[in-house]
Amino acid sequence: MAMTDILSAKDIEAALTSCQAADSFNYKSFFSKVGLKGKSTDQVKKIFGILDQDKSGFIEEDELQLFLQNFSSTARALTAAETKAFMAAGDTDGDGKIGVDEFQALVKA
């Protein structure tokens, strides 16, 4: 499955363009611009499955750093500060990773 099976290529491009500069990534803004906020629970779970590169059932910090590259191979990696802030927002149980339920809550926040 590809991101474009659920999200429009145009929305993905617009969302990535909005955070090209280092330290400009904001997950709430990105989820809204990419069209993820309005998707069903099942669609959000499918996106989570794409983001969970090692299929562990969680998005770990190294996967989170490469978050944007899941949407486009030419996108930049998140900075250390962006990755830590994104993890802190999503990891509500403090285990150092984001599970599918935490990801759902983050998208809908």
Topology:
Elements: H1 9-17, H2 27-34, H3 41-51, E1 58-59, H4 61-65, H5 80-90, E2 98-99, H6 100-108
Antiparallel strand pairs: 1-2
Helix pairs in contact: 1-2, 3-6
What's this, in brief?
This protein has six helices and two strands, in the order H-H-H-E-H-H-E-H.
Question: Which term fits the overall shape?
Answer: globular
Residue-averaged pLDDT: 96
What class do helices, strands and sheet pairing give?
mainly alpha
Alpha carbon gap, first and last residue: 25 Å
Roughly what percent helix? 40-55%
Instruction: Report the sheet-strand fraction.
Output: under 5%
Quantity of strands, as a count: 2
Measured on Cα atoms, how large is the radius of gyration? 12 Å
Largest sheet: 2 strands, antiparallel
Poorly predicted sequence stretches spanning 5 or more consecutive residues: none
Number of helices: 6
Strand order of the largest sheet: 1-2
H-E order: HHHEHHEH
Report on this structure.
Helix 1 packs antiparallel against helix 2 and helix 3 crosses helix 6. The chain has helices spanning 9-17, 27-34, 41-51, 61-65, 80-90, 100-108; strands spanning 58-59, 98-99. The protein has a two-stranded antiparallel ribbon with strand order 1-2. The protein is mainly α and 109 residues long. The radius of gyration is 12 Å and the shape is globular. It has six helices and two strands; from the N terminus they run H-H-H-E-H-H-E-H.
